[in-house]
Amino acid sequence: xxxxxxxKQWGKSRRAFLAITAAIVLTIGISGCSKAxxxxxxxxxxxxxxxxxxxxxxxALKLLIxxxxxxxxxxxKLDNNLLWTALKGNEVDTYVEYTGTALINxxxxxxxYDPQVxxxxxxxxxxxxxxxxxxxxxxxxxxxxxxxxxEIAEKLGLKTGSDIAAKSSELxxxxxxxxxxxxxxxxxxxxxxxxxFKEIKTIAGGLAYQAIDQGVIDVAMVxxxxxxxxxxxxxxxxxxxxxxxxxxxxxxxxxxxxxxHPELEQVLNSMAGKLTDKEMQRLNGEVExxxxxxxxxxxxxxxLNGLLKG
Length: 310
Description:
Number of strands: 10
Order of helices and strands: HEHEHEHHEEHHEHHEHEHEEHHHH
Helix content: 40-55%
Strand order of the largest sheet: 7-6-8-5-9
Shape: globular
Largest sheet: 5 strands, mixed
């Protein structure tokens, strides 16, 4: 074979070789993106409802998953009304829900007040009806209680919900439309405490603390893990009649995901029972009051509790 023919032959072989190599590289690249990308088969989609507490817990799940498994995890913010649809549509794999919310809003069951009964019912029905596994409770409950301006609480000697009811004719109460209309919230307050407030004002949920602070209202229903009460002159009173459905925090995971990645159950359950109401309130304060990043606060807490290495 002549020299120029040899080069021609080598050129054809070289072009063929390069084409094959490029195809292999492209295939590997696509495969790699599938595993590491935002919606890849080896990526766990974690939802947050978009408020501080939910953001902290979602990031704690992310950090644990990425530290203890070979999986990648991403956090996505979803409106509460869209979250459940996303979970059923396989767009979300896991998130932290509350037992009372699952019972009333998701399962549409009647209110129950025993924490164990509620947990057992939610766990059983989500499994049977929706193929969702409920993991162990994290330990705290984000419930409701009367919040009163401190000067009024001290002046009138208010310490419990029953105390509020006895003095309600002297007080202005504020609550959101959602609170007043939900069957698990205002109706049991009326039934058990029978308050007769001087006036009831409609206040957007997030503004109730500010309204108490500014004297627009005297009393509101506040969330027990809210960080607002740490920086405002608000006294949180005891719910002595225990009128609310329990709202214990519970991680939920799609069964399909657990079947493919069974190691997730043990990893996420490592947080079980480790968060008290006060501790969750403190963590919320780090985000809401000190403007720290939720992932930074979550990481610090996980390290402090021996769940991540420092």
